[in-house]
Amino acid sequence: MKNFTSIHDIPNVEQLVQQAFDFKNNPLSQSEIGKGKTLGMVFFNPSLRTRMSTQKAAQNLGMNIISLNVNDGWQIEFEDEVIMNGNKAEHIKEAAAVISQFVNVLAVRSFPTLIDREKDYQDFILQKFIQYASVPILSLESAILHPLQSLADFLTIKENQKTKHPKVVLTWAPHPKVLPQVVANSFCEWMNFADVDLTITHPKGYELSPDFSKNATIEYNQNKAFKNADFVYAKNWSSFNYYGKILSQDESWKISSEKMALTNNGKFMHCLPVRRNVVVDDSVLDGPNSLVIEQANNRTFATQSVLFDLLKNKKNEL
Amino acid sequence: MKNFTSIHDIPNVEQLVQQAFDFKNNPLSQSEIGKGKTLGMVFFNPSLRTRMSTQKAAQNLGMNIISLNVNDGWQIEFEDEVIMNGNKAEHIKEAAAVISQFVNVLAVRSFPTLIDREKDYQDFILQKFIQYASVPILSLESAILHPLQSLADFLTIKENQKTKHPKVVLTWAPHPKVLPQVVANSFCEWMNFADVDLTITHPKGYELSPDFSKNATIEYNQNKAFKNADFVYAKNWSSFNYYGKILSQDESWKISSEKMALTNNGKFMHCLPVRRNVVVDDSVLDGPNSLVIEQANNRTFATQSVLFDLLKNKKNEL
Amino acid sequence: MKNFTSIHDIPNVEQLVQQAFDFKNNPLSQSEIGKGKTLGMVFFNPSLRTRMSTQKAAQNLGMNIISLNVNDGWQIEFEDEVIMNGNKAEHIKEAAAVISQFVNVLAVRSFPTLIDREKDYQDFILQKFIQYASVPILSLESAILHPLQSLADFLTIKENQKTKHPKVVLTWAPHPKVLPQVVANSFCEWMNFADVDLTITHPKGYELSPDFSKNATIEYNQNKAFKNADFVYAKNWSSFNYYGKILSQDESWKISSEKMALTNNGKFMHCLPVRRNVVVDDSVLDGPNSLVIEQANNRTFATQSVLFDLLKNKKNEL
Hints:
Three copies of one chain form a homotrimer.
Chain A: H1 13-25, E1 38-43, H2 49-60, E2 64-69, E3 75-77, E4 88-91, H3 92-102, E5 105-109, H4 117-121, H5 124-132, E6 137-139, H6 147-160, E7 167-172, H7 182-193, E8 197-201, H8 210-213, E9 217-218, H9 222-226, E10 231-235, H10 257-260, E11 267-269, H11 282-285, H12 292-317
Parallel strand pairs in A: 1-2, 1-5, 3-4, 5-6, 7-8, 7-10, 8-9, 10-11
């Protein structure tokens, strides 16, 4: 694998998934492969799960880690042919090339502007890192996708599905802040690959980009959508069509025990962090059908499997 | 040991203390036990000695470290049954459970509010971590106790005592800021265990909680208290009874060479950081009887001994 | 080597340089020497290249790393005999002595005030660390020198020189911010040692301290200076004589392709970060004669060679 930015970068998804489960059974089975190798991590925003699970995955492979919070240092210029006499001290051309000298894989977490849709959906920051780095790039979340989260979600569904072709519902839920579409977009990509029946439910105006939602059933009635669901994945996102806008904070979309009762004893999923009693009720999160902690746990093994392939590739190149 | 939050968590204090001295003699004697294991560190406030000595202790045992500054990320909600539509993005239930997926021991540094005594003396934040984490909790200082500091202090007294039953004086000293009672509380617990004669001296109104001070002699005259002291432990704290208040900044309580001359050639101790010429004079800190740097050094071996027991326990559980 | 703060601390520069090239060929050849040993890193300001290359160097030697951003914690008092009742919580005497308990080598990055020339040119902060630490000090940049950068620059010139006695030009370039003289000072020291013909060019008023520039040719006409240059090292600095002042932002001093055409097919160097199209044109930075990424790469091996000597020394002391 050259870089990991989406499911489309993976030559053999089934193999990568099996490898993740193997690492879950035996996390230290390849603890020598990363010896003397370094994972660089660049964060443009705070992170808990992503930071910790990525460190854990790298340490399981014996790698060293060098981490950089961009906001603790100077600002980076991403535009070309600029006269840099403002507040940005270093150009991405140098930053990415220089960091590449010190690391074997470079993990980047960036975020959308939620203002400029065209630039966001070009995945501007991530693509600039890919352009100027000389080592494999590992996306820890970008302006449009959160592929490691989705791989962890995919593993969690695999572990918990009781039927060959489960019904999976991705439901919008209310939230006080403007959030990206990345988790929803990425989840759609992986559910398209999975052998599941995917329904997306949200208020009108919250349609995702058809690039991601085109193979799913869209159902504007949340109660109808939940019927017979085996998995309910809750997530807030801001509007794609009215880009970055909050169109609704309708509390009736909150996931409650009553709503979960409409499902086929459905499992509850969320990528975390989650706002209790805004997105989902305590009773659901604390109930026996909640998978949220296991989703977080699977982040480690999703990342470890991807890192292993990126390291193997790099090794072969040398 | 299940968790380490106070001396009362230790099954066999003498054994733990001997183990700490053994590690001081040979820090790398158990450098394989932590291989593939991870210490998580969560800080709610800045830290120098605690952060560095804990890292050093974990590295001496071969552990990896994942560190999180809560203030660099989002705020955590600690109250139950809250509608989380404010500025707190994640509940301690998820935060503690998720971090537990990535680490083998979770070290937490929290602080008192110094406003709400009831909540502080329940050790609210630390107890929430214990409640929701699935791995052993190591207190790096809490709202009421600083047990690793006190264990290091205990080691330092052991190393420097010339008599079987030394006189130890814990003295309040002036300070411009509102400070917790934690170091003083914790020191009392350990001196109660130690075979020493403990006197506490402070201006009226600075009485510690009787839970901690009950076995000590209270002497409001600092000069009298210092008489024949083998060890003088200086520390500022704010009032327990007039909770969180500064009642005095009386400079006459500063520890001077003249005051130390009243002692039995007593050693000077302080947990650091210390404000020179406010809490204690340069001449005392820089004099031959100052133990403050050795106290800091012993932090490493105190922590290493505790971590070793927490790891052994965890290992046995697996 | 006792400490590393300038070229003058190195007993045998040729040996240290050869050792750096050996590490570049085989970075993990001494990966056991640092086992169980710790590099402490203290930063008073943000850092990208220095932080990452130093970590990489230490990890190549098998060392653990403990890093401290001073600005994330409390402020340190550097003055002696002060009554510390202000905003500074810890004195350098304790800070340096305590950190020394936890690390085997202590790396410090400090900066000049650019206001008080006398104090800056005493290298006040660095010297206080040397005074109070009990372990070797490694300068990661100080108020007057950036010796690891200059060693990396020296390595880069060695690798790229085509003649025995190349012409090296250190040229001032415009910049919107007030910058230190450290890179220029330090480069002069190393070029004095190297077998090169050093010319310094800058607008009037930007003369460096004669302590550093005394063996160089000073040429106020940049075009004349560039003639037949084999290497052009660009850097902005603020005035030494009118201390910390910006006297000129003359754009005609920017390094352009036209100016580089005056050289002997000269290589372009800069320590980074660099402001594109302010200090130097895109065409030069992106051209085939730019060495800036290789300079950054050589930071790792410069530091690794120095750390190796500091570790060996420390080891011998034990």
